[in-house]
Amino acid sequence: MALTLFAHPLSSFCQKVLVALYEHGTPFTMRLVGTGDPTAAAELEQMWPMGKFPVLRDESRGLTVAESSLIIDHIDRHYAGRSRLIPGDGDAAMPVHLWDRFFDNYVEHPMQAVVGDALRPEDKRDPFGVDQAKAILDKAYKVAEAQLAGRQWVTGDQFTMADCAAAPGLFYANLILPFSDNTNLSAYFARLVARPSFARAIEEARPYHHLFPLGVPARYP
Questions:
Q1: Residues 60 and 153 in one domain
Q2: Which of 11, 14, 79, 99 could form a disulfide with 162 if both were Cys (CB 3.0 to 4.6 A apart)?
Q3: pLDDT > 70: what percent of the chain?
Q4: Which helix or strand (DSSP H or E) is residue 31 part of?
């Protein structure tokens, strides 16, 4: 198979790419990283010395693509299904890129800061940093709440890469700082978890939910 994705189902950035692959129906092989398989980890580091996943290997083009947004862009240009996740027109694509970066920078990153702190030894934790991260999340929720007024998906009627980014970030962020008071955002999240591509990613991650240090309720979402 031409495409191999080095990833882990629990990772939010990996789920972002998986949603895109499932949206397009693109065939690929999954190499699980972080499950005790030293071979996969060694291959990943050889291709991408930073050792971060997800990483996509496209054998047919002889390319290694790192970083979730770039991976989705590559899939969207070369392995697209019936509809594009990034509009071909540059002006139309700009809001998609903006909201993709919004969810990565202001939902994913502060969420991961809180998770990372929970994984530290007790005497190495940073309560001030956690409070800062939660404040960023709270502000991001309010911005997203306003953006989602009257919209089905974050940039309009079309499901895009920005929604691929939003889904896993919001899944974990809601466990850290619930957004239930933001009615537009809560309704949007319900649409995301009902989307078959993300529902599949959630189910594939369930066997690993016990590894999430802040706990995932058995019936969540």
A1: no
A2: 99
A3: 99
A4: strand 29-32
